[in-house]
Design brief:
By secondary structure, this protein is mostly helical. 80% of the residues lie in helices and 0% in strands.
Length: 269
């Protein structure tokens, strides 16, 4: 019975992991397939990766990638900055107002992207703002801010208020206290917010589709248009590179957290 109790949860976990990661593994394997647009293995090649940076098709993908990374970088930094300021403001509200504000923050997180995309499209149309890179960035910032607040506010709540009071008693200004005391203490939440919002912005399709003109194509928009014509080996190669980049960032983030936790654990001993 003990064997079965251990076997069933482990087998269930293994099935879940296979279900999640098997499609990614297939994508990575076929990104090296020498037969284009085929699920028949024709041999190992790096041509799919080389073609990303060559020719008209490859340059189009590269331009979309650069545009997507630029928008995601701006959106993640701006939304994280707003998240820090908002979380600090929420920390000084009374419990009832704080609870109400946090509830309102949760609403955009559970709202379908379709509703958010159409809402911003109507807002920009009402204000007379033409669809452009500006509207794309603004809509992405609005999408990411609630997630930034949810990443940062727990670290703000864990912050010892006596640290800020001591810093100000010792002559630090509010800005110095923020820069030298608060920011270093909540840095794990800030890094988590940057990573989460950056990923959300790169992944977004619906909001981008409603709030940008035809002259600009983000990477998800290009991938969707390419997918209509069948499996494209360049698409497999590009998504493999993106998966690898995110995986490296996650590993580095976890290693950083582990190194910070290790000295703390050593001190307790």
């Amino acid at each position: 019975m003990r064997f079965l109790k251990k076997l069933v949860p482990n087998a269930y976990l293994a099935l879940i992991l296979v279900f999640i990661y098997l499609p990614i593994a297939i994508l990575i394997i076929y990104s090296f397939n020498s037969l284009p647009k085929s699920f028949i293995w024709g041999g190992f090649t790096l041509d799919n990766y080389k073609s990303l940076f060559k020719g008209s098709d490859g340059s189009g993908i590269l331009e979309s990638l650069i545009e997507t990374l630029k928008v995601a970088a701006i959106a993640s930094v701006a939304s994280t900055a707003f998240g820090v300021l908002s979380s600090l403001g929420l920390a000084y509200l009374n419990k009832k107002l704080q609870s109400f504000a946090m509830t309102m923050t949760y609403v955009p997180n559970v709202m379908p992207d379709l509703v958010t995309g159409i809402s911003f499209m109507l807002l920009f149309s009402f204000l007379g703002v033409q669809k452009s890179e500006f509207t794309l960035i603004m809509s992405h910032i609005a999408l990411c801010v609630p997630f930034a607040i949810l990443s940062i506010s727990p670290k703000i709540r864990q912050l010892d208020k006596s640290l800020t009071e001591a810093a100000m008693d010792l002559g630090a200004t509010r800005f110095q206290t923020l820069r030298l005391v608060i920011i270093p203490e909540i840095m794990p939440g800030i890094l988590s917010s940057l990573l989460l919002t950056f990923t959300l912005s790169i992944d977004d399709y619906l909001i981008s589709n409603f709030n940008v003109d035809s002259s600009i194509q983000t990477l998800p928009m290009m991938i969707y248009s390419m997918a209509k014509l069948g499996v494209n080996p360049k698409m497999n190669a590009l998504t493999t590179l993106m998966f690898g980049a995110v995986l490296i960032l996650m590993v580095l983030s976890n290693l950083s957290s582990f190194k910070k936790a290790k000295p703390a654990g050593a001190k307790k001993k």
